[in-house]
Design a protein that fits this description.
The complex is a heterodimer. Chain A has helices at about 5-25, 25-30, 65-70, 115-130, 135-140, 165, 180-190, 235-245, 255-260, 290-300, 305-310, 340-350, 370-385, 395-405, 430, 445-450, 460-475; strands at about 35-40, 75, 80-85, 85-90, 100-105, 145-150, 150-155, 200-205, 210-215, 225-230, 250, 270-285, 315-320, 360-365, 390-395, 410-420, 480-490, 495, 510. By secondary structure, chain A is α+β, with helices and mostly antiparallel strands. In chain A, strands 1, 8, 9, 10, 11, 12, 13, 14, 15, 16 and 17 form an 11-stranded mixed beta sheet that branches. A 4-stranded antiparallel beta sheet of chain A has the order 4-5-7-6, with helices on one face. Residues about 1-35 of chain A have low confidence and may be disordered. Chain B folds into 2 domains: about 1-75, no CATH class; about 90-335, MetI-like (MetI-like fold), CATH 1.10.3720. The chains are: A alpha+beta, B mainly alpha.
Chain lengths: ~525, ~325
């Protein structure tokens, strides 16, 4: 036996041919995009199927999958407005002590059994059980003593909650099948979940993919795309490759540079929408933040438009309060203008200057949100020019949560804040209310303004109250809102994709392009 | 004799595993990152946080938590995953076959490629062939596995899309297999289309994992082969008229293999660790990918279970390595 160069080349070519035969050239690229099927290179893997318990239940991105398989009590349109879901009508009694809900007729579970008001009662009771593991139990536990009369469910409320029904379109607000769940148990449900949503689970391999089939009996009409595959591709580079190679039909949450590069490519379209997620800097009520001049200077020194234009390629909306323009309590008249000269003057009043700067630490994640670290670097540069020296401390998001819950964040800490129902309670409310484990600025003046709004029954007065809180927070520079994020979605030109301001990519809204 | 030796090695592994378990348990509770803090929703009160801690048993002292966990582990359970709401043992068991197959394929590619390069380099020693092998192995060694992965995705996934980029099989097909050992089972059942599909999905991640190891094998084996090629028995074989290639493959290779086996065994344990990044990059559903999610979510029971699994794998690989020494070297076999 003699090894020669010629033999090696021939062997290599033979192996290459065998590989081609084995894989079939471009077969993978062609599989996606077939008529009636859509493959989504999705940025998050689905951890668990029960949409009402555990950490995944409060993961906003995962809601895209849950909303495909399960129905919410109340639906939500892409512009965040509410629409009937399993409940056709709902409301409070005049005294604000009871709620009533009319359950839709003719809805069937994926196993063919009918969805009844008893399923709604069971789902709400289970959600409100303190031992059940529902992270939003504090909302659902408000209801009790359920009664059913035909399709109507009535329940007593411990207290009036103006946002209760909005939560029914939000985290953990899903109706689950009582009979099936009790029959198979939590483990059985994880293995074979049954919902009433537009898609039925066909196959699921954890951390790999989820294949869904259109529900032909869906009360909202059969979805236009018959088969939907969520490929869990958590690495952004791999998602870019998926859409660029044609292996996937849709992808999202990719770097804006790549979005710009690919959106005009043959066969690929792009769509962006501002979503209910903002970037902000928490200010903690510890020195030197107790000095109002320092806080105001921090806010005034930051050129948000420059950050959006230069770092995010224009994909972002500068904001001055914790309310994005699509939120209910958004008030465009509240402004915190960029004014570095005024910032330097304020710092000078407190004895600080470029040569003798005020010093503190700012914490940030790196790579958790688009350009988060780079943004903080740029902000620190802007601050330096007016007399603020901030040391950057990078931490993991888990550390941020832990520190925030313990009220031990640094004087300044970058974070992103979502509010898919657009209500001020879930934006300004929980971020600024002292007793909330999520707030960083905890003072009695703010709490005194927010406190009465939790149970305010006059909606106009409630919203006006939140706007007043936002104005007070901005006037006193108690937080530094930066921008509203924009979600980039790339898809094949053979598909129409409707973005949702909540950020939940809903395949039930996909349609084949004409 | 052999059975006794294996038993002894397994018994020796027990204190190691207990040590790993204790260390990991304590470390996980000392490092920052509260799993409950990760799941506190907007609007939760301090009472809700306390309630969630109690729900997952995180309100108890560390020693007590360890006792509970150790009791579960002794019964073959490792508790319930906080983020996935399923038994940790079951989760790991369902994912381990994918990782084992990936490591096995990567090791096979590395060994075949490494040996081939070493043989070619030795065959063409002193010429352009050896220089090319040295350059190639140096390059393969210098580039980390995940960079190879990214390069493969670009070349074979995007520019010349002949291989699938993510997953373990095409999501549009039902594999209908009984075990998690998709590749091995499909080969044993002669379901070659399925085997081809799985192999195609594994080709890029396995090769990315394999290349640095292949380069290392090539270097060590080539060096050992060069030593053997100067031995008298090689010269005698050449004088007898055997071709240089035959002498390398038939005479010298076996004698040069021992140091390479030793190195390969050690490196394969690193290969298992390397799957964490590679599985993530290729969305491959193995325990490496599971480990990253567990760490991100501070899923303490799952992290503990996974680290213990990795530890068991390391111990078993080292045991297999020791046994293979004995098979290759008669001096070890006969004491």
């Amino acid at each position: 036996m003699e090894l020669t160069r010629r033999g090696l080349v021939a062997g290599g070519l033979t192996l290459a041919s065998a590989g081609r035969m084995l894989t079939g050239r471009s077969a993978w690229a062609q599989a996606a995009g077939d008529s009636g099927a859509a493959t989504i290179a999705f940025n998050v893997a689905l951890p668990a199927w029960d949409p009402t318990v555990g950490g995944s239940a409060v993961n906003p991105t995962i809601q895209a999958i849950y909303q495909s398989v399960f129905d919410q009590y109340i639906g939500q349109n892409p512009d965040l407005s509410f629409t009937p879901g399993i409940l056709e009508k709902w409301g409070w009694n005049d005294a604000g002590t009871q709620v009533w809900m009319d359950v839709r007729k003719g809805v069937v579970w994926h196993d063919g059994s009918p969805l009844t008001p008893d399923d709604v009662v069971w789902s709400l009771t289970r959600a409100g059980d303190p031992k059940g593991g529902n992270p939003i139990q504090f909302i659902w536990g408000n209801l009790g003593n359920f009664r059913t009369d035909g399709q109507r469910v009535t329940a007593d409320a411990k207290q009036f909650d103006p946002v209760l029904f909005k939560w029914m379109a939000f985290l953990t607000g899903y109706v689950l099948p009582r009979a099936y769940f009790e029959k198979v148990g939590p483990d059985g449900f994880e293995k074979k979940p049954v919902g009433s949503g537009p898609y039925m689970v066909d196959a699921f391999e954890r951390n790999a993919f989820l294949r869904l089939k259109a529900n032909p009996h869906y009360w909202g009409g059969r979805p236009a795309i018959g088969t939907v595959v969520f490929k869990f591709v958590t690495d952004a580079a791999a998602r870019i490759a998926e859409i660029e190679s044609g292996s996937s039909d849709v992808t999202l949450e990719i770097p804006y540079e790549e979005y710009d590069r690919l959106r005009g490519k043959k066969g690929i379209r792009g769509v962006t929408t501002p979503v209910s997620n903002i970037g902000m800097i928490f200010i903690t009520n510890v020195p030197p933040m107790l000095d109002a001049n320092v806080r105001h200077a921090m806010v005034m020194a930051v050129d948000k438009k420059l950050l959006v234009d230069k770092l995010l390629r224009g994909y972002g909306v500068p904001i001055d309060t914790l309310e994005a323009p699509q939120y209910e309590a958004y008030d465009p008249s509240i402004r915190t203008p960029h004014d570095p000269r005024r910032a330097a003057e304020l710092l000078a009043k407190s004895g600080f200057s470029e040569k003798k700067p005020v010093t503190f630490t700012i914490q940030t994640t790196r790579g958790y949100m688009p350009k988060d670290y780079e943004m903080i670097q740029a902000i620190v540069g802007m601050w330096r020019r007016v007399g603020i020296h901030a040391d950057i401390e990078v931490y993991e998001i888990a550390k941020h949560f832990e520190l925030r819950a313990a009220h031990k964040l640094a004087p300044a800490a970058f974070y992103n804040w979502g509010d898919a129902i657009g209500d001020p309670t879930t934006s300004t409310g929980f971020a600024m209310f002292g007793p909330s484990p999520h707030s960083a600025w905890k003072t009695k003046d703010v709490d005194a303004m927010i406190g009465p709004l939790w149970g305010e029954r006059d909606e106009a007065k409630r919203i006006a109250g939140w706007k007043a809180v936002d104005r007070y927070v901005a006037d006193n520079a108690l937080v530094l809102p930066l921008l509203q994020y924009v979600q980039p979605i790339l898809h094949k030109s053979t598909l129409n994709v409707v973005p949702h301001i909540s950020g939940a990519l809903q395949p039930a809204r996909f349609t084949p392009a004409a | 004799m052999l059975a006794r030796r294996i038993l002894l090695r397994l018994l020796q592994a027990v204190p190691t595993l207990i040590g790993v378990a204790v260390l990991v348990f304590v470390l996980l509770r000392v490092v920052p990152g509260d799993p409950v803090a990760m799941m506190i929703p907007p609007g939760a009160s301090a009472d809700d946080v306390v309630r969630l801690h109690a729900l997952y048993g995180l309100d108890r002292p560390i020693f007590w938590q360890f006792l509970v966990w150790a009791g579960q582990a002794a019964r073959g359970s490792f508790g319930i995953s906080i983020s996935l709401h399923q038994g940790v043992a079951g989760l790991i068991a369902s994912r381990l076959p994918a990782t084992l197959e990936l490591v096995l394929l990567a090791a096979t590619i590395a060994i075949v490629l490494g040996v081939a390069l070493a043989v070619i380099g030795t065959r063409f020693a002193g010429g352009g062939g050896e220089a090319a092998v040295d350059a190639a192995s140096g390059f393969a060694l210098a580039v980390p596995d995940f960079v190879w992965g990214l390069g493969f995705i670009l070349i074979f996934g995007v520019l010349w899309p002949v291989l699938p980029i993510s997953g373990r099989a095409d999501p549009m097909h039902a594999l209908d297999l009984a075990t998690g050992f998709t590749l091995i089972e499909s080969l044993l059942r002669l379901r070659l289309v399925v085997a081809g599909e799985v192999l195609a999905h594994m080709a890029m991640p396995a090769t990315a994992l394999a290349l640095p190891l292949a380069a290392m094998i090539a270097r060590v084996l080539k060096s050992s082969l060069a030593e053997q090629m100067g031995q008298d028995y090689v010269l005698i074989a050449r004088v007898k008229g055997f071709s240089r290639a035959r002498v390398i493959l038939v005479e010298a290779l076996r004698n040069a293999a021992l140091p390479t086996v030793s190195l390969t065994g050690v490196q394969v344990t690193f290969l298992v660790g390397g799957t964490v990044l590679i599985e993530r990059l290729f969305s491959y559903p193995g325990i490496g990918n599971l480990a990253i999610d567990a760490v991100i979510n501070r899923d303490l029971p799952l992290i503990q279970g996974l680290i213990l699994t990795f530890a068991v794998l390391f111990i078993l690989i080292n045991l297999a390595l020791d046994l293979s020494y004995a098979a290759l070297d008669p001096r070890l076999r006969h004491g």
